[in-house]
Amino acid sequence: MKKQALETIELELAILIRRLTSVSTDKRKTSLDRSGYLLLRRLSALGPAGVKVLAAEFDLDISTVSRQARALEDKAYVKKVPDTQDGRSYFYQITEAGLAELTANQLSRLDSITNLLSDWTDDDRENLGYLLKKFNHSLKNR
Questions:
Q1: Rounded distance, CA 55 to CA 13, Å?
Q2: Does 25 have pLDDT greater than 60?
Q3: Which CATH number is 106's domain given?
Q4: What is the number of domains present in the chain?
Q5: What's the pLDDT at 131?
């Protein structure tokens, strides 16, 4: 690997993370933080899931996911559904209120991204999406 390319990637990732952190700390019109958003996206796309499955998917410990899910439950964005296979455990399922909040948050995020990338070509936007997905896949499989 070329050292210059790696140094550029390292610096640009550090800047990206800093800027994203700065933007994400702004109070938005939604009550959904990043962790809640990701949990709701997952539950909306793939259906109910237990804490162990969610923890594995997001590479987090069970206590962290439990705390995040409990915050969503307190807002009535998810509800606990008993596991019919194992009466001692349960799944989290997105509620109508959770789906509405997720949709509003996603639309807001898409609007922001649309504005940020308005002067980019379609090819550049597609390439960015492809490369981000590829990079995230590498992170997941490290």
A1: 25
A2: no
A3: 1.10.10.10
A4: 1
A5: 95
